[in-house]
Amino acid sequence: MALLSIRTFPDPVLKRAAQPVENIDGSLANFVDSLVQTMYAAPGLGLAAPQVGDSRRVIVLDVDHESQGKRLLRLINPRIVEAQGSIVWQEGCLSVRDFNADVRRAARVLVKAVTLDQREIEVEADDVLAVVLQHEIDHLDGKLFIDRISRIKRELYRKRLAKMIKEGKTDEERPSPARL
Question: Which domains does the chain have, with CATH numbers?
């Protein structure tokens, strides 16, 4: 298992929709293990394959940092089949440097997916787990959480990011809290 490089906005790979996984094999299992290790090292609550430049519909997430691995989900071809209610959650993202914003999401979701052992599962989620599932599945559809905020806030972020890049500031210079 190797740590993978996380792509950051405005990398165009983040705007591309991922393709369904057709073959679950040892190669995919190794990739998923690397995805998990990268998520924990970042640290993040979730990570989607497109965030590391891979075009497959794969996400990993773990919302329990105190018992790392106990609630770990590795989901292949996840899709939201039911969504109810509304919740506003402050989100950040491993692929969106130095920015958090309130995002409106469904308060409860039902997600269907396949596991590495090729079982179909359903995940019923609310609160933070529902938010993280929606956030990561958005990545599979080529969307970032900043696509869900106002155009004005998004443009302010783009300008700030351009200034950071111009000044040569990098993520390594600043510690960051866990991100989605």
Answer: 12-173 (3.90.45.10)
